[in-house]
Write the structure tokens for this entry.
Amino acid sequence: MTYQEQIDKSRIPQHVAIIMDGNGRWAEQRGKERTEGHAKGVEVVKKIMENAVELGIKYLTLYTFSTENWNRPEDEIAALMDLLFNNIDEEVFIKNHVRLRVVGDLERIPARVLAKINHCIDNTREFDRSTMVIALSYSSRWEISRAARMLAEKAVNGELDPSAIDEKSVSDAMTTSFMPDPELLIRTGGEIRLSNFLLWQAAYTELYFCDTFWPDFNMEELCKAIYVYQQRERRYGKTGAQVAEENKNE
Ligand code: IPE
Ligand code: IPE
Ligand code: MG
């Protein structure tokens, strides 16, 4: 039986976040340029977006380019920006009724890329079947520092009582405030780390790591991650017995 057949369709996570890693190594193993791996990776993004919609995932957040990725060779960065520019395919979003959002330090993104993204965001903002969030020039420490700055400015202006700052106000100051925290975070490509992604939001997220390079990721791999997620017991600090009791009363 495939994982797609085995997953419980009534318990699909609402929000899945993915660290799409392994494009470069996928290409290098085949004697190709790293950018060819990125190009293949983009094709996979389009497929996974449609797969996620089909499964009923409401939010799909994709780590596309990190703040640290600005330290890569200039030609690789340029190739990545070109790929973005050429593959923000509004038609695919419209066809699937998917809304596009983006989180990250967009001031650093080339104007033509940003214009294309904003056009797509504007033309898809009414769709509510699913939301695809591109994390672009994003890092958690950038986001958390920005949130701290925003809250401090409000406090200085007298709009916010510092003693009233709680988890909700911090969450609301994050760039991701329009969506719930991810239930499941997937990282492809074999590394077991978060690389500055959703550190605040993933406080209680189930983490799933696989060796598959992103260009080889597919619907079945996504379903496997969901299957593993569905086998886990999410305890939130309680005991297994307490959780079992709560589930019985549901
Ligand atoms: C992920 O693949 C894509 C980006 C970070 C833009 P990598 O380019 O990091 O691939 P590896 O890790 O070198 O294989
Ligand atoms: C993380 O991948 C960022 C993205 C997938 C966009 P990296 O390949 O840049 O991560 P590190 O630096 O190896 O941890
Ligand atoms: Mg990598």
About this structure: Residues 34-55 form the longest helix (22 residues). The beta strands are 15-19, 59-66, 98-103, 130-138, 184-187, 206-209. The chain has a mean pLDDT of 98. The pocket of IPE (ligand 1) is lined by residues 20-25, 65, 69, 80, 189 (CB under 6 Å).
